[in-house]
Design a protein that fits this description.
Largest sheet: 6 strands, antiparallel
Number of domains: 2
Distance between the termini: 31 Å
Order of helices and strands: HHHEEEEHEEHHEHEEE
Structural class: alpha+beta
Number of strands: 10
Strand content: 25-35%
CATH topology of the largest domain: Chorismate lyase
CATH superfamily of the largest domain: Chorismate lyase-like
Radius of gyration: 19 Å
Strand order of the largest sheet: 4-5-6-9-8-7
Shape: globular
CATH class of the largest domain: Alpha Beta
CATH architecture of the largest domain: 3-Layer(aba) Sandwich
Length: 233
C-alpha cells in the first residue's frame, strides 16, 4: 500500500501538483484513508529519492533539483522515472533472448549461462537523441516484456505485471570511449568520450533482476544523487 502511495506522491511532485511542500500527514491520511505509519513509510520512500526534505515543525518541502528539467538525471530516482519521462520516446535496435557469457557474468554478477532478455534502444527527448541503452532482464525473474513497454517504460511494466520494484542498486558513473558499434548507433566517431552509467538493480532479498549500461549524449547533462546521513549526527 505505501509503495503505491509513494508512487502517487512522486507523480504529483513530477507534475507540479505539490510545488513547495507536501500536504500535512493528517491531510494525507485522509486523502488515502490510511494510518499515519503508512503515510510516513510512503514519505520515507519519496525522501530517499531526494524529492522532499523534512523541516522539523514545518512539514515536508519539495526539493527543486530541476536546474533545467531536461538536463538533470536523478540517479536516486532511477532511469525510468524522470521529470521528462512522458516526453521520452525510444527506437528499438535489438530485442531478443541471449544467455549470459563470462564477460557479463564478471561485469554484473549474473550467473554464467543465465537466460536474459536483451533490449538495446536509442532514447530521445522531444526528438533529440538522449542516450543509448543496453539493458538485460534476468528471465527467471522477468519472464517476458511487451513491445509497448520497451517503447516507453519497462520498469513500469514489470512493476505492474510482476510486482517487482527496485529495492537497491549498484551504480557506476564513468567517462568511457565509444566502441565502434555504439558510435555507429549514435552517429559519432569511435572512441568519442561519453558519460556512461553502469547499473545493477535488485529486488526483495537482493535478487538481481536487471542490469544495464546507458551512454548519454544529451548536451549539458547534470547527474544528481541524494545521500542521507544514516548516523544521526
Amino acid at each position: 500500500m505505501y509503495h503505491d502511495i509513494a508512487d502517487d506522491l512522486i507523480h504529483s511532485i513530477e507534475n507540479k501538483l505539490f510545488k513547495e511542500k507536501l500536504p500535512t500527514e493528517h491531510q494525507l491520511m485522509e486523502r488515502y484513508n490510511v494510518s499515519r505509519n503508512t503515510i510516513r513509510k510512503a514519505i520515507d520512500i519519496v525522501a530517499q529519492k531526494g524529492l522532499v526534505r523534512r523541516v522539523q515543525g514545518s512539514g515536508y518541502f519539495v526539493n527543486d533539483i530541476s536546474q533545467a528539467e531536461k538536463t538533470v538525471v536523478n540517479l536516486t530516482m532511477g532511469l525510468s522515472r524522470t521529470r521528462y519521462h512522458k516526453e521520452m520516446t525510444s527506437k528499438i535496435v535489438t530485442f531478443d533472448e541471449i544467455h549470459a557469457d563470462e564477460a557479463l557474468s564478471q561485469q554484473y554478477g549474473v550467473r554464467n549461462g543465465a537466460a536474459l532478455l536483451r533490449v538495446i534502444r536509442l532514447r530521445y527527448v522531444e526528438k533529440q537523441l538522449y542516450s543509448l541503452e543496453y539493458a538485460y532482464y534476468v528471465k527467471s525473474e522477468v519472464p517476458s516484456l511487451s513491445l509497448a513497454s520497451i517503447n516507453h517504460s519497462i520498469f513500469d511494466y514489470i512493476r505492474d505485471k510482476y510486482n517487482i520494484r527496485i529495492n537497491n542498486s549498484d551504480q557506476y558513473l564513468s567517462q568511457d570511449r565509444l566502441t565502434s558499434e555504439a558510435a555507429s548507433l549514435l552517429g559519432l566517431k569511435p572512441k568519442t568520450a561519453c558519460m556512461t552509467l553502469q547499473q545493477s538493480n535488485f529486488y526483495k532479498n537482493d535478487v538481481l533482476f536487471n542490469f544495464s549500461q546507458t551512454i548519454y549524449v544529451y548536451p549539458n547533462l547534470s547527474f544528481y544523487f541524494h545521500a542521507a546521513n544514516q548516523s544521526g549526527n
